[in-house]
Amino acid sequence: MQISTTWRRIAFVFLPFAAGYYLSYLFRTINALIASRLSSDTGLGTADLGLLTSVYFLVFAAAQIPIGILLDRFGTRRVQSVLLLIAAAGAGLFAVSTSFLSFLIARGMIGLGVAAALTAGLKSIILWFPRERVALLNGYMIMLGSLGAVTATAPLEHLLAWMGWRQLFEILAAATGATAIFIYVVVPERGNVPSIASTPTTLSSVFGDRRFWRMAPLSAACIGSAWSLQGLWASPWLTDVEGLDRASLVRQLFMMSIVLSGGAWLFGMTVHCIKRRGIGAETILALVAVLFIAAEFALILRTPLPSILPWSVVAIVGTATVVSFAVIADYFPPELAGRANGALNVLHFGWAFLAQYATGLSLEQWSANDGHRPVQAYQVAFGFNVALQIAAFVWFAMPWRRSIASWMSSILFFKPADVSYAVESVGLYEDSVILLPADDDAEW
Fold first, then answer.
1. How far apart are CA 135 and CA 335, in angstroms?
2. Which backbone phi and psi does 303 adopt, to 5 degrees?
């Protein structure tokens, strides 16, 4: 009976939302594949292409807070299905657009339409599955969704060999509309899991939490930058700096996407295992940041390594949302899950927008030679991003320095007067969650 209930939850809750997130990831990364065709067909410059691609992130980020509130109030099924219909309309408009403004509007509609794809899936996991399985299922959700990035490489390249990108977006519009209807019809209703925690379920309780502001800048700086790089700028770098031809480019993007999908599973398993041993997910986030910064330095300094190695690290970091949302799940109760995840996603996608557009503006300052920009242009653009990530890491590490000082003081039997404990206990929410039986308030 228990096995039957678990598989029913997977089939009617987990997989429908994973399908929505798959489409979200596909739309996010597809411009890296069609960038050259889009530029040649429409005459878009580098800065215009950067803005067109990044407006997805801008609208996505702007919608996160309202969507978080809507998810907490009206449920994941209704919100996700309605928004995916908007994404379908945006994909249809993109397929028939001829002016930059119409492309911009269409891309913005797509961004709005898939803005709840991840947060709706994560909230549904919190509501329907045991708390100790949340991090693992988050990893599986992002792994399956990131297959959209895999699809947006070699598979779609083969498809584009016998159809245009406009026809491709028509197909995506139909598939997105069908997914919206599927979610609305198949996914059951489920109310919020109640909590006896005394913390008010308002947005201010998220933004007023010091732990959130300690972790969020580092998470946004790393994950948003990784999305920006893989979603658009990996392709020009590999072409201009590495000198790859079209076939080699698509092959490397495909390999990066495979690594991306595997990274989500790896993060989910890692967080699941370390939390069972009482280790916080913040430790994994710090290690991810260090690895990401090192990989970017390897690219900027042109170290004698196969380019697939640092770019694979970039791809993996794009799935570190598994780690960040595991941290959020520890900080806040389930009835705040939509708002808390949405608040963090604002920073993720807001940073991705700024990084993607600013990189395009920076590259535009160098003139292209035979259609290729010099390596110095990319070094400057990427280097500025890395500097901001280092600053975010220092901000994140400051409480750890105080914790180390406190530990050293306890060893020396001396406690300085100015030691402050900036890292608050997360036990309040963990101890106050009440999990309901699977079918208590479900309408299957």
1. 17
2. -65, 150
